[in-house]
Amino acid sequence: MRQAILAKLRDWTGRWGVARRARLKLRDWIARSGPPRWEATRDDLAFRYLRGDGVEIGALYNPLRVPSAARVRYVDHAGLDELQKIYPEHDWVMAPDVIDEGERLGKFADESLDFVIANHMLEHVEDPIEALHNFLRVLRPGGILFLTLPDARHTFDGRRTRTTIEHLLRDHDEGPQVSRREHYEDIARIIDCVPEEQVAERADEIAADPARHHFHVWELETFLDLIFVLRLPVDVEAAQVTELEFAVILRKNPDKPSDTITAPWPARRSTSSPRHTPP
Ligand SMILES: C[S@@+](CC[C@H](N)C(=O)[O-])C[C@H]1O[C@@H](n2cnc3c(N)ncnc32)[C@H](O)[C@@H]1O
């Protein structure tokens, strides 16, 4: 009798073992059958890290999927009607709850949020150092900064020179107007490929366009260099390259020795582009 029961048990566990192995094989096949996909990576990171009250800056046509424990307010530099005019190529865009300049977040108090999401937004900002400082300013200790940026190797920026830390420090210290024209000419020359004699004219058109262009160009390594050189009060929780972009998850850690805590970056309000209306 005992032998029969044991045999039955072996039989069952064996069958379950086979079923389990098959299920894991299928899961591996689906999950690991190619390089990480950007949508799945964003989802995974969002579900792992986002909780509480936060903002997504520049969601536009592609708001991040977040877990039910995360309450998001949407921030953009313009209201819904204006966004629809600026980006007519999108049938639907997320209506912002708050209109604010994302790099300053002037409408948000210090340490008032559990997370800040900025997907494909930071490359449109003229002074990313100020933006990073303000993202961290509004986060509570332990809060999450969720960033994705286009990986220059896989976008139309591929042939542009990667932005250096020296360039960003200069934009920050002297004001972004010092390199604004250079960016427009870079886009005219390298992305739009206009002949040299038409670069100035095309740069004028880009400058007058209300859509915000890619001022800066990164790959994961060059972006992480910036984070480390700035000595931000953060722990790097995750850094992941996908086929289109890279994602970086930073957790605010005020206990970390940092330059921003002791030496706040100066406000840059007076040096912003004229079309950047103050909050
Ligand atoms: C390329 S779209 C990003 C769309 C989407 N988040 C994604 O992942 O593809 C850039 C968005 O950032 C917004 N944006 C750019 N600069 C901004 C700024 N300084 N302040 C607030 N929003 C900004 C734009 O209006 C737009 O909604």
Labels describing this entry:
single chain, 279 residues, alpha/beta, Rossmann fold, 3 domains, 7-stranded mixed sheet, 7 strands, elongated, disordered C terminus, binds S-adenosylmethionine
| Count of alpha/pi helices | 9
Q: Quick one: CATH superfamily of the largest domain?
A: Vaccinia Virus protein VP39
Pick out the low-confidence regions: 261-279
**Count of structural domains:** 3
> How far do the termini sit from each other?
81 Å
Cα Rg = 23 Å
- Biggest beta sheet summary: 7 strands, mixed
Beta-strand segment tally: 7
The percent range for helix content is 25-40%
What percentage of amino acids are in beta strands? Answer: 15-25%
Strand order of the largest sheet: 3-2-1-4-5-7-6
Looking at CATH, which topology of the largest domain would you report?
Rossmann fold
Structural class assignment? alpha/beta
Specify the CATH class of the largest domain. Answer: Alpha Beta
Could you tell me which ligands this complex binds, including any ions or cofactors?
S-adenosylmethionine
What would the average pLDDT be, to the nearest integer?
88
Q: How does this model look, in words?
A:
This protein is an alpha/beta fold and 279 residues long. The chain folds into three domains: 1-34; 38-156 and 215-276, Vaccinia Virus protein VP39 (Rossmann fold, 3-Layer(aba) Sandwich); 177-208, no CATH class. 40% of the residues lie in helices and 18% in strands. The protein has nine helices and seven strands. The chain has helices spanning 2-32, 38-49, 80-86, 128-138, 165-174, 177-191, 199-208, 220-230, 259-262, and strands spanning 52-57, 70-76, 98-99, 113-119, 139-150, 234-241, 245-252. The protein has a seven-stranded mixed sheet. Helix 4 (128-138) links the parallel strand 4 (113-119) and strand 5. Helix 6 crosses helix 7 (199-208). The termini are far apart. Residues 57-60, 62, 76-77, 101-103, 119-121, 124-125, 212 line the site of S-adenosylmethionine. The site of S-adenosylmethionine (SAM) has 16 residues, from loops.
